[in-house]
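Hi everyone, sorry if this is the wrong subforum. Our group has a chain we'd like a structural model of before ordering constructs, and none of us has done structure prediction before. Sequence below.
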Amino acid sequence: MQRPPRAELEPGSTASSPERDPQRAADVQAMHHLCRRADGGAALVRWLAQRTGCWAGLLDRSGGVLVGALPALEPAAASLVADALDDMFGRGLRTFVADGETHAAILLAVDVPAGVQGPVLAFVGADSVPRSLAADAAVLLGTCWWAGETQRLRTQVDDADARCREAVLHLVMSRHISTAVQIASALRPPLPDPLRVYVFECGAEERDEVVRRSIELAGRSAFIVRCPVYRRHVIVLAAVRNSRRPPGTRPIEVAVAEDIVGCIAGAGDVVALRDTAVGYEQAIHALSVARGRAERWARFDAKLDLPTIVGLEGLRWASALLHPLITYVPARSTDPDAQELTATAQSWLLFSMAATRHLKIHRNTLSARLQRIEELLRLDLARADHQALLDLALRIRATPCSTDTLRPADPDTVVPLDELMRAPAVQQWAQTTLRPVRAAADSSPLESTLRAWLSSNSRLSVAAEELGISVSGARKRVSRLEQVLRRSLLHGPSARHDLWLAMHAADLGSPVEART
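Answer:
Right subforum, don't worry. Here is the predicted structure as tokens:
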């Protein structure tokens, strides 16, 4: 028969002080040493079990084991502890002893800040636990538990902050500016406008240092996001200061690349907040150039953008192509609408299948959305040329001068793409884009590599087979193209769509040259 519980204990009230008790002093010293470890609470609980010969554990108020020695409690002992906890808190006690038929349970509420419901230290076994040891352990475990709880809450806050920043970046790049500004104002700092986008590539352990240095260099106005797509990237949206930098002050990309070992930096041009996606692509292209430079940083080499060159005729062409997508109304309210499908297309063109991390969706969901986009636009997105058409149309629609309504353009006024590509301004753009390749000393293998890589839908293995070289050889040639063109090719966002259009326009304007 189970005996009734004893009255509340006052652990340590009659025990000698550590100065007068050498054993207690040794125990306190050992426990302090264990608490300094990263797993201090768990290590201390295991030590208590060995020291007392009892089962020791840290329990929540319902009897759940937070940290416990092995082996686990037997069902009878667990039932005794659960009943003792109910009795202890029902009486408003902080210490309690309960005797069972085969076990004795000693419970002590650990010391935590006022107003916090902390856990309970439990000893289950023979009733031979020194009261001073139990009291000292309860104090130290309270400190360990509170430190761990504080760290856990801090981690939760940091995770929530990171996810909100990712959401703000996604909204800005999708041009939902007002919503992004509202969310960012709660996170601090507010989104800068105008701004310059920086992308820093570093090891995972250096990301915190990159964030710290970016804040120091860009000031508290920098909106910083740990990239959700590329785990080694940090994205910084920095305000453009009207005043000149003091003499001797290094630009942000230079200072971070020089001060942090192994860090690579790319910087875009100054853009308006609504054009952040353009600035991000520019920074990615600069980053690809920086990888091949000894100084490990680069700034985007600006050129006139094709969506701007094609003008109103290009806008009509893009509106006609995208009309089935941007006016799409799903049959069910739960299906993705036109806005979601458009955002999916933009993300996939930038990041390929890594768009799942950008959009926070499953791989199968992404595939289903792409299939729906293909059906609406009658495109085959496995083809490089169709990808380039969709990318150009979406970028034209995103240009600041794009003021067309969503109604379809008159078919009689829509200029076919090939006619757009034959326009003198587009021809000049194409020649300017390809000139670095054709002017290089190794121009012949570079251009043949570019053509093979584009025709193979950017698959290195297929391009290597067509060129009759190894995959590593093809990769080296494409890396060389990145340096010559000063554009990212192997990593998204890639310039492959612009290059396909430039090559296509050049072939239309000079078919004889294209075949040679």
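For your construct planning: Confidence is low (pLDDT under 50) at residues 10-15, 402-406, 511-516. The radius of gyration is 33 Å.
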